[in-house]
Write the structure tokens for this entry.
Amino acid sequence: MFACIFIPDFPVQALTRYEPELCCRPIAIFTGRPPLEKVVALNESARQAGVEIGATKSQLEAWESLILRARSESQETSAHAALLDCAQSFSPEVEDTSPGIVLLNLAGLEPLLGPLPKIAHNLAQRVSCLGLQANLAVAPNPDAAVLAARGFPGVTLIPAGREAERLGDLPLEVLLESCSSDTAAAARRMETFDRWGIRKLRALAALPEVPLRERLGQQGTRLQKLARGAMSRSLRVLEPQLIFAESVDLEHPIVLLEPLAFLLHRMLEQVCARLSQRALAAQELRLNLELAPTQPNHCAPLTPPPTPSPTRTLTRTLRLPTPMLDAKVFLKLLQLDLQAHPPGAPIVKIHLSAEPAHPRALQSGLFQPVFPEPEKLELTLARIAGIVGEGRVGSVELLDTHREGAFAVRHFAPAEAKESAQEKMSAVIALRLFRPPLAASVTVREARPVQMQCPQRAGVAGEIVWTAGPWRSSGDWSEQEGWSREEWDIAVPHESGLALYRLVQDKLDGNWFIEGMYD
């Protein structure tokens, strides 16, 4: 058995998928160059209002309640990609028939997903969650499923052996439109059948085969087999491509971030729904904003007007520490990022893509501390970065250098816990560093420190009774800011005994510092 998903008025539904508030209003989609724009798609409300395919935009501009929109190929591509993702979440054998039409093989799915009626209704419900209203048909062969989906609303199931009976009530226009993309050729063929009195598929299926072939050739035989539901073929299986992207062409440029956030929320919901259908999450978000060209200043008289600047694109990338699937968290992260990096020009097109990854699987131990949720932690870090600036929030990573205290701030990502065979407890000496180091005055005798005073810290002064060192290190000699230091471990008398300190001399300027204290 095969199932066909058909989206009626696909260009219109690709638009209302992002603007669901327009579903109940009459909509006409036009294309072409001004002033020759013509209507290429309508919804049912526009048909009832009297709008026809092929009408010019200038003829319909006087209609107050009619919404006129330019056709958006990017929105149709995104909607069709979402439809393919939905079909591939049910069956591995999917055919990309045409925009708004997808075929899938249901053979062998009943033990896993239940009986065919249940699979069909679940599939229709899943398509509805994408913001698309589909006609769905299940039939023994792909072409019969396509005809039933194009001709019958809702969910239709055709048992084996009853294809001709169920398809017989369909008008002949459904068959001709599905077989030919050439509107003029379909109209000529329809005129021929109309002269013969053939207006439904049942009448075409009842014609004698030989006279029909003599008059229409092999094309006539093929049309009759399709009308009887007797055509058999294999699906052209689509190779799955894990591309999750949504695009919106804006009717009017967006200047403020608030209306941009409204559209981004809708797009993120669509991306998350598609990822969820494939049991995936997002590891990286990439937002491309196409900006309107800047208008040149008014030029002096009698000089040719300057050409406007080319279209610019703002690209922002969010790399997530762990795979996530929360549209609200994604929206807040993008809002904080755009507040720190505003577009600077009106936005005319939005493209959002997500890099898929397998969702995280984590099971904490009973005696391990509770860690914050990655989504909340990432949102908190983004808010802090908006206050203190980028590059100042993250996790500290030690640099591979001999320079003391050299580190870099990396984007925070929780490290995976590694199990150790046996943890051994042992007494260790820790060096408690002073930040910043304490300036000191040191008396040197025979190239060794013998007396120390620290004005910044009371009690850290006196005769040095024990020393170890020196340990010398230097680096970055080829750059403008080199470094060279000499370290000593010293002991100074204290009330409770001896106090151990780390004493450092900067060899470039000769200053001494107390860097830390041993505990």
Notes: Residues 26 and 66 are 5 Å apart (CA to CA). The longest strand covers residues 431-445. The domain at 245-293+312-360+372-394 is CATH 3.30.1490.100 (Dna Ligase; domain 1).
